[in-house]
Amino acid sequence: MHIDQLSVAELEIQRDSVLQQYNGLKELDLALDLTRGKPCREQVALSDALDGILHGNYLAENGTDVRNYGGLGGLAEARALFSQVLNTPPEETLVAGNSSLTLMYNTIDFALTEGLRGPLSAWGNNDAVKFLCPTPGYDRHFAICEHLGIEMISVPMLDSGPDMDIIETLVKEDPSIKGIWCVPRFSNPTGGVYSNETVERIAHLGLIAGDHFIIMWDNAYAIHTLYDDAPPLMPVRDLCHKYGTMDNLFQFGSTSKITFAGAGVAFLASSKNNLTALMQHLAFQTIGPDKVNQLRHVRFLANPDKLATHMAAHAAIIRLRFECVIDALEQELSDRGMGDWSSPRGGYFVSFNTLPGLAKNVVKLAESIGVKLTPAGATFPYGDDPQDTNIRLAPTFPHLEDVRVATNAFVICVKLASIEHYLHLKH
Ligand SMILES: Cc1ncc(COP(=O)(O)O)c(C=O)c1O
User: Fold this and answer.
1) Residue 52 belongs to a domain
2) For residues 98 and 87, what is the distance between their CA atoms, to the nearest angstrom?
3) Is 53 part of a structural domain of the chain?
4) Hey, which of 64, 196, 332, 343 would disulfide with 60, CB 3.0 to 4.6 Å?
5) Residue 35 CB less than 6 A away from ligand 1
6) pLDDT tens column, 347-380
7) Dihedral over Cα of 309, 310, 316, 321: its sign
């Protein structure tokens, strides 16, 4: 029954029963972790063939010895391969080291301190530098802004993607807004995919905001589908090309959740102007990326259909974990008025919203019985969820059985917090 409709006596009966279950879990000394979106051991093992795949042949297609210095933009064959992930031309795609987050940090730091179009264009010349942050969103994006002293403005996330009406109004009115974070396919944490209309309006933003504005298009889950019917994403580059806003767009991706999370390959795509400017900056940091790893990835992934079959193998491993979470939430919490959640068709997360004001309490209750959840608030700028509702669940890393136990424990914590909240209201 919906929690709204329960009398105090009924609430008390339910509270006693849930409390008993909660105390039972306490005795189990659980040590479970649903915090970070990491691939599990079986997933990383799918790419074990990377080890030794070169068999002593270190020559790239053009004869480059990949063991040596150089090649700042990445191997040509790696650019060709990973441009397929981002849906971009190889000549607009740079392939780098293992982390796309590094590329994102570098891009923002460069625009802030040196300027994408020379020193006069540096955002840091202005008193205030602000960024739009669709929320809930990815904590590490927000951490980059906070670390670099960029003020964050939260924008609500809708089913269609970020609220574009609000965004268009804000960028029109405030030239100190220099960019926006986007995880356009299987967003972290909602799992949503931006609608065609949203992608088109984002591509158009440069015309409203001006040259100084950049779109940080972090397509970390570009090909990470769980089901064949997962919604596709409109290619933003084609639309930016149509509107003449190519210089406003930076796209990112990596193989962190394709091959090895700690030893993959990251890539960035942007206009030729931007790539030239950025590479001049990167040249101060490195003589060239790890081309040996790039070549290993090319040999492993560049066969026809390999990317698709490889991603299907990932999905076959983690789909069961997602279904375990969603099934438990549906069975135990559907129509109970204790929260709502996303049912993603891809990506790495399930986003759960408690009743307002309860997320922190649920996380605390879970921690007390040995179930670690991402801290409430982490999905918002400055770690502050004004409604205190959002909790990010990351089911990929633990064993399936542990996901089952952790989700059941989570459900009990949600019930306990919700029932106690209603009892408090009714007294
Ligand atoms: C949206 C998003 N972007 C980037 C990353 C990290 O990417 P990388 O491993 O390439 O640095 C993550 C990892 O969870 C993520 O969720």
Assistant:
1) no
2) 20
3) no
4) 64
5) no
6) 999 999 999 999 999 999 999 999 999 999 999 9
7) negative
